[in-house]
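Hey team,

Sharing the 2-oxoadipate dioxygenase/decarboxylase run so nobody has to redo it. Sequence (455 residues) first:
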Amino acid sequence: MTTLVSHHEIRDRFSKAMSAMYQDEVPQYETLLELVAEVNRETLERDPELAERLATHDELNRLGVERHGAIRVGSAEELAMLRRLFAVMGMVPVGYYDLSEAGVPVHSTAFRPIDDEALARNPFRVFTSLLRLELIESPELRERAAGILAKRDIFTPGAREMIELSERQGSLTDEQAERFVAEALETFRWHQDATVDLDTYEALHAEHRLIADVVCFHGPHINHLTPRTLDIDEVQRRMPAAGMNPKEVIEGPPRRACPILLRQTSFKALEEPTRFAGDRQGTHTARFGEIEQRGVALTAEGRALYDRLLGESRRRTAGLTNEAHQRVLAEVFADFPDSEAELRRQGLAFFEYRATEAGREAGAVAETEVERLIEQGLITARPITYEDFLPVSAAGIFQSNLGGDGSQAYAGHANREAFEEALGAPVTYELTLYAERERSSLDAALTSLGIPPVR
Ligand code: OOG
Ligand code: NI
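Structure output:
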């Protein structure tokens, strides 16, 4: 009998191999990893309570391996094959993000693991965007781009072979997994050689830099990797001294006592020498490094409040430095409750419940109010970490690295159906995942207190 390794083991190996490759390709990313590790270490030393909380909830181990990456592809076939490639690593498409309104002609999903154990092991995610050629106005340029894309194959024959094998067997053996990781990595590698001549590159670039980035190369080079920090403000402050040029502002919500959703910033993309067909030298700017700080996942109500406050802050933060931007955000977000108890009582965020030792030993408990049970120390609630992305922030990250100002908007609108058709599968709605996790943890906690789960 052949022993198969788990999808999660393969994802863990792949994410480490990808990180090593990217450190090699973009040495500043290695510096960024060191800076993040240093700040995380200092933060944990300063805040032993945080360290303990992360440890008891399986988050300390994953901190060191945690990162996301991003790629952009050009056709339905490429996207559909990527779905199968990521499935080998237990990663499924979660969420639909429309970026056309923000002036970026793509729509996206995030491939990621979804169950608790898999997330605790290694939550590696890849934000994956599909170019929307239909949004290019000029018919000639549209056809030219489609023609170029039709000629390339971004997967090695070995990668295709291992994907099919994994689908047939249910997973891969140790040796096959090694081969899969090496072959799959080729899809994400940077190629100095463009597939087109400089004139074609420039024509596509003039339409939108992103179109040139997607269309003119052999593959969808990984364009950034993002480690998770526990103090994004501090990493942003220290970036210049470490030789990195940070983007102007940290995207997302302001700093809070109870962090919500996701805060992100990046160092700016590097200009890299590129060889075009006809042996002409030029440069291409695409690859960068990013950091993220994750907070609690918000319910639909919490998210609506976040979107409203962010919308209100936008008029007031335009053009501000990060410091001033963060001050205004903090003022506007004063309307967002900032204690775990309030977030829970108002149904703004998702929590995971567990019975305490005292709870399990208490015997039949008469009390059924969740908040009272928490006060009595019979169950605990901890915030569920947000594992997904934010479209407004993603647009900000795209723009700061593509040189756009975000004022341009494509006439297109969200088209989830078209995206799912290209993908060949539906995307999972992220809120359902958090709601299910909250519900099942509460059911289990109440059951161990001898309380029938409330519906
Ligand atoms: C993806 C930008 C979005 C994030 O963290 O929000 C993203 C890209 O530039 O391809 O990675
Ligand atoms: Ni990112």
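The chain has a mean pLDDT of 92.

Ping me if you want the raw files.
A.
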